[in-house]
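Structure (tokenized):
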């Protein structure tokens, strides 16, 4: 065997924290021992392909954090419901994906798998001539593998509020012996950035940290298959994650600006679409359909009082005269929560949520960043 053949015979396990449609993607690779060998953050599919081609070995498993197989027109996929049942109590439910978000089921993850010739059926044996691409989700993976009492809170809020969650995330990743992070030059660079982050650094580093989790899952899928479970199947879509936890969830206590405290009944969803205000127009109806789709199957107990938290991410074209008022955005979004709150009577043919139950509203709006899609982060919680 010559030197080039020896290099290509090395096994590579990829983690891909993929932007759902466009935007930034975190990448990570571990070797046959599970050791982190590289990580990066890129944007385009061509940059993803270039980075993967530069890795010294053959891809055995690629674990992608993004919808891969999306056959359903509306509502949640089967694996999203199953993940919610197993990990929802730990705050690690899956985001909703359907043809509203991916017309015709055309996903970026599937296009990449086809580009690289990877098999997408989780039943495909690993270690052969064909790499295997699986869909994964870091939040339930961390809860299950590390027996966390609740999901790590490092994604939402300002940098000061996210910092404690990042510190815990780093500690937990360093506790995984196979990753051997102490010996990784790139890991030392990431920790240096996290020690004194500038604006935007946490979001950029987050993609790589999530990709490292995905790479570890790719390695486990080949080396320790029993540590993971398939939720769903290749026909209805699937997510690979640890088995349902045997330990009970413990909601985090509020300490300063650290983790947020879930209410007894709580649903947190990401709504993908163009936020639109109360206007009785077609755009409002499309936006409401996006909100209803995201909260499909979510219902709070009858009669409970409710807190709604909304963060709207506007499109770049929603500026000047096209920028919607925050109060109108709130009205349209809450009206679409009729599945969660129940339907308010006396509104004629117009379906509106029973928003009389809403005693507290917190809301903000901003324009989506370069690596973000327009939409909203919405949390509906029992007071």
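Design, position by position:
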């Amino acid at each position: 065997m010559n030197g080039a053949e020896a290099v290509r015979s090395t096994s590579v396990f990829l983690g891909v924290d993929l932007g759902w449609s466009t935007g930034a993607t975190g990448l990570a690779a571990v070797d046959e021992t599970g050791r982190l060998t590289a990580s990066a953050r890129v944007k385009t599919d061509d940059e993803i392909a270039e980075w993967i081609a530069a890795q010294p070995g053959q891809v055995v498993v690629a674990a992608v954090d993004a919808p891969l197989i999306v056959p359903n027109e509306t509502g949640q996929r089967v694996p999203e419901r199953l993940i919610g049942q197993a990990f929802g109590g730990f705050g690690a439910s899956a985001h909703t994906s359907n043809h509203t978000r991916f017309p015709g089921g055309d996903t970026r993850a599937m296009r990449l798998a086809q580009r690289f010739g990877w098999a997408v059926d989780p039943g495909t044996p690993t270690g052969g001539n064909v790499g295997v691409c699986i869909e994964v989700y870091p939040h339930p993976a961390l809860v299950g593998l590390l027996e966390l009492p609740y999901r790590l809170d490092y994604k939402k809020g300002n940098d000061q509020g996210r910092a404690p969650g990042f510190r815990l995330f780093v500690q937990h990743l360093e506790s995984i012996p196979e990753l051997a992070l102490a010996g990784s030059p790139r890991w030392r660079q990431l920790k240096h950035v996290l020690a004194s982050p500038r604006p935007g650094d946490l979001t950029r580093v987050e993609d790589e940290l999530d990709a490292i989790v995905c790479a570890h899952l790719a390695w486990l899928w080949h080396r320790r298959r029993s540590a993971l479970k398939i939720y769903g199947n290749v026909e209805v879509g699937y997510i690979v994650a640890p088995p349902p936890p045997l330990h009970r969830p413990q909601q985090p206590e509020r300490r300063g600006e650290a983790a947020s405290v879930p209410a007894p009944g709580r649903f947190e969803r990401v709504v993908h679409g163009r936020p639109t205000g109360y206007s009785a127009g077609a755009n409002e109806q499309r936006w409401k359909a996006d909100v209803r789709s995201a909260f499909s199957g979510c219902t709070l107990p009858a009669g409970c009082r409710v807190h709604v938290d909304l963060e709207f991410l506007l499109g770049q074209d929603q500026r000047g005269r096209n920028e919607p008022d925050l109060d109108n955005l709130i009205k349209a979004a809450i009206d679409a929560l009729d599945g969660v709150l129940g339907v308010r009577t006396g509104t004629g043919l117009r379906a509106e949520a029973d928003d009389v139950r809403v005693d507290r509203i917190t809301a903000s709006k901003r324009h989506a960043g370069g690596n973000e899609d327009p939409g909203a982060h919405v949390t509906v919680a029992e007071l």
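Reviewer-requested clarification: Residues 1-8, 254-263 have pLDDT under 50 and may be disordered. The two ends are 66 Å apart (CA to CA).
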